């Protein structure tokens, strides 16, 4: 009987546990220190859980920031289509939203966790904390919080990174891997809010913008660091939301400050916007400028744009010049902010860095240094943009590791 230990009851660990436990002559124990599995999953996507992205393996790789080629085999062995089928076959209806992001129809991350937990329960789930790991000639020796020890033929580390530490992701797996001889690339925050210099953000705290374009400029005037259309929001210290989180992944190794531009009307040319403004002005020629922009801007943003335009808020619209309208158009097409910092690991959705992928076989997720040791999910030095890609990494690497562990021949 082959014995397998999996440390970490998150997306990767639960996916691996179920598939490994379904193999004949295999006994699997999933160690999860929290009272319930899927603690981080339950808060993913503000509690909605963006499971995957309904796209091809190649397009998944295009959205991976760190070491995309390493994931070639994983994405092709367990594709986004496989993920969708996995959940739907287990009774969870799904829906696809803007950007091909896949969510449960219930908009309830708990339903996703429930499916994965039932899948993982094919294995034995042990809620004791693993405090130490050793490799001996007998196998992998796990020391538990009560000082008892268990020995296994194979070990999968699926302990996640260091984001959302309150869910139990405190980097324990990095320590286990280092003790066994692996290199850990220094963990960094990824998919985080951005801090901005301008005080305008605090005046618009909570304002959500949809269907806007965010551009992160390159100081050398080359191709933008980031350019995408979608949703974002203002916070008391800067900006956040899907567009911003993805941009942060590409900024973490860049020098700051950086200027970002928000195109509030990406579907309209400056000429069309000018005509819209003229039409609004003509409908009430004696209106104050500050009361004339409700058709183009959300209420919370009007005072900020008025102030930036340099036009007196009480100026009558029938006296506003062509150049002043041009200024307003420029603000709508390129509302600028200065990024001075990135959010911390405590604010991060995922952790960049982790186990050096050159020390891991990409076709099996097995260590190249320690036979029988495997890795899956966020513990690896792979991370992606928002859109369901990071969970797809977890599912694909978890599946690949499970299949490899159950097929591995004992030496």
Could you describe the 3D structure shown?
By secondary structure, the chain is of the alpha+beta class. It has two domains: 2-188 and 351-407, FAD/NAD(P)-binding domain (3-Layer(bba) Sandwich), CATH 3.50.50.60; 193-343, Helicase, Ruva Protein, domain 3 (Orthogonal Bundle), CATH 1.10.8.50. The protein is 29% helix and 26% strand. It has twelve helices and 21 strands. It has helices at residues 11-21, 57-62, 72-77, 80-89, 109-120, 172-179, 200-203, 242-251, 270-283, 302-309, 322-333, 389-407, and strands spanning 2-7, 26-31, 52-53, 64-66, 94-97, 101-104, 124-126, 130-136, 139-144, 149-152, 154-157, 184-190, 194-196, 208-216, 226-234, 238-240, 258-263, 335-342, 350-355, 373-375, 383-384. The strands form six sheets. A six-stranded antiparallel beta barrel has the order 13-16-15-14-17-18. It has a five-stranded parallel sheet with strand order 7-2-1-11-20, with helices on both faces. Helix 9 (270-283) packs across helix 11. It is elongated, with a radius of gyration of 25 Å. The relative contact order is 0.19. The model has no long low-confidence stretch (mean pLDDT 94).
Keywords:
single chain; 411 residues; alpha+beta; 2 domains; 29% helix; 26% strand
Compact description:
The protein has 411 residues and is an alpha+beta fold. Helices cover 29% and strands 26% of the residues. It folds into 2 domains: 2-188 and 351-407, 3-Layer(bba) Sandwich (FAD/NAD(P)-binding domain), CATH 3.50.50.60; 193-343, Helicase, Ruva Protein, domain 3.
């Amino acid at each position: 009987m082959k014995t397998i230990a999996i440390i970490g009851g998150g997306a990767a660990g639960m996916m691996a546990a179920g598939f490994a436990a379904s193999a004949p002559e295999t006994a699997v124990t999933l160690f999860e220190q929290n009272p319930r599995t899927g603690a981080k999953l339950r808060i993913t996507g503000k509690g909605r859980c963006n499971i995957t992205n309904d796209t091809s393996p190649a397009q998944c790789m295009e959205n991976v920031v760190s070491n995309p080629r390493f994931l070639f085999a994983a994405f092709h062995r367990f594709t986004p289509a496989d993920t969708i089928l996995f959940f739907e076959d287990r009774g969870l209806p799904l829906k696809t939203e803007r950007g091909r992001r896949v969510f449960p129809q219930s908009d309830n991350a708990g339903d996703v966790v429930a499916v994965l937990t039932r899948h993982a329960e094919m294995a034995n789930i042990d809620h004791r904390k693993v405090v130490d790991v050793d490799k001996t000639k007998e196998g992998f020796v796990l020391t538990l919080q009560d000082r008892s020890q268990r020995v296994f033929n194979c070990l999968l580390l699926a302990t996640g990174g260091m984001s959302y530490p309150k869910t139990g992701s405190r980097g324990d797996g990095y320590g286990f891997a280092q003790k066994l001889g692996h290199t850990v690339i220094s963990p960094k925050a990824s998919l985080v809010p951005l801090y901005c210099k301008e005080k305008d953000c605090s005046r618009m705290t909570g304002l959500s913008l949809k269907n806007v374009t965010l551009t992160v400029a390159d100081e050398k005037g080359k191709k933008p660091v980031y350019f995408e259309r979608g949703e974002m929001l203002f916070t008391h210290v800067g900006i956040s939301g899907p567009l911003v989180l993805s941009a942060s992944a590409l900024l973490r190794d860049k020098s700051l400050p950086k200027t970002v531009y928000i195109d509030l009307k990406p579907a309209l040319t400056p000429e069309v916007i000018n005509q819209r403004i003229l039409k609004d002005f003509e409908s009430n020629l004696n209106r104050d400028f500050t009361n004339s922009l409700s058709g183009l801007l959300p209420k919370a943003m009007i005072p900020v744009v008025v102030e930036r335009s340099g036009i007196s808020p009480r100026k009558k619209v029938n006296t506003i010049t062509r150049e002043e309208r041009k200024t307003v158009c420029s603000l709508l097409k390129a509302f600028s902010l200065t990024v001075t910092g990135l959010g911390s690991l405590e604010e991060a959705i995922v952790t960049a860095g982790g186990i050096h992928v050159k020390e891991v076989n990409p076709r099996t997720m097995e260590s190249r240094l320690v036979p029988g040791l495997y890795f899956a999910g966020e513990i690896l030095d792979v991370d992606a943009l928002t859109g369901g890609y990071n969970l797809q990494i977890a599912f694909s690497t978890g599946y690949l590791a499970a299949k490899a562990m159950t097929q591995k021949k004992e030496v």
